[in-house]
Amino acid sequence: MRTLLALALAILAGLPLSLRADKLSFVTTEFPPYIIKQGNELSGLQVDIVRELCRRLGHEPDIRVVPWNRALGLVKGGQVDGIFMPVYTKERAEFLYFTAETSGRERISVMQRQGGDIRATTLEDLYGELIGTVLSYSYGRTFDGQPHLRKDVSTTNELMLKKLAIGRYRLVVSDEGVARYLARQTGELRLETVLVLQDNPQYIGFAKTLGKRGEALAEQFSEALRQLKRDGVLKDTEDRYLAGL
Fold it and tell me: Residue 151: which CATH number?
C-alpha cells in the first residue's frame, strides 16, 4: 500500500500545473442569467463556463458570490485567486492579469416595455424621462456623469423592474441579458432596447499577487477559452441561457 501511495504521489508531482487538480478560488457577483444563486446552489452562463474551463485544465473551482466592489477588493488584496466577468480598465489591470480571450460581453442599454413609444439617438433625447437605476451600479462614464438625467434608484434589479411594470417610470438602464432574464421571470414584462450605451468584452482575471503563477493561469485560461469557442461549447452554453430573451 505504501509503495502504491508513493508511486501515485510521484506521478502527481511530475504532472504539469495544467493537469494537477489544485483548487482555484474565484469571486463574482450575482448577475442572472450569468451568475444565478439559489440558496447554496450556483449556476448560470458564466459559472458553467468557468467550471468547464477548470475541468479541462485540471483545477477545482471554489466560487464565492459577493457584492461587486467587495469582489474586486478581495482579488486586489490577494485573498482569492481570480474573478470573472470584469470589463478591462487600466485601473483593474494594475492588480489583475486578464485573459487575452473574452469570456462574454456586457451590453448596457436604456430599455422600455415592449411596444413603448420612446425613441432616442443620444442621452439628451431622454432628459425629460425618469430612468430606473440600481444603487452602486455603474452604467459607464457618459451615463453616470450626465447631470441632466433624472434617475430613480432601486436597491435591486428586481425592484427596478417592478417599478417599471407598475408605471413608476417608462425607462430602465441595465445589462440587456440581466434585464430580459429577470423580466421573463415575471411572466408578463417584455422589454425592448431604446439606446445602447456601451457594449464591452468581459474577461477572467487573476490576482497579480500570484506573481508568475497568475500570469500563467491567465494564459492557460485564454487558450482553453479559444478551445471552447472552436468546439462550439461556448455557443451551446450561451444558447442554453440566453435563447428567447
Answer: 3.40.190.10
The whole-model pTM stands at 0.82
Report the domain count for the chain. 2
Q: Please, what sign has the CA dihedral across residues 53, 56, 59, 63?
A: positive
Q: Give phi and psi for 55, each to the nearest 5.
A: -60, -45
pLDDT in tens, 95-130: 999 999 999 999 999 999 999 999 999 999 999 999
Show Cβ contacts of residue 80 under 8 Å, excluding neighbours closer than 6 positions: 25, 26, 27, 64, 74, 207
Which residues fall within 8 angstroms of residue 196, CB to CB, at 6 or more apart?
Answer: 107, 108, 109
- Inside any domain, residue 4: no
What tens digit of pLDDT does each residue of 122-179 get?
999 999 999 999 987 889 889 999 999 999 999 999 999 999 999 999 999 999 999 9
Counting DSSP H helices and E strands in the chain, the numbers are 9, 11
CA angle 44, 48, 54 (to 5 degrees): 150
Domain extent for 83: 18-105+200-242
Query: Is 93 in the same domain as 207?
Result: yes
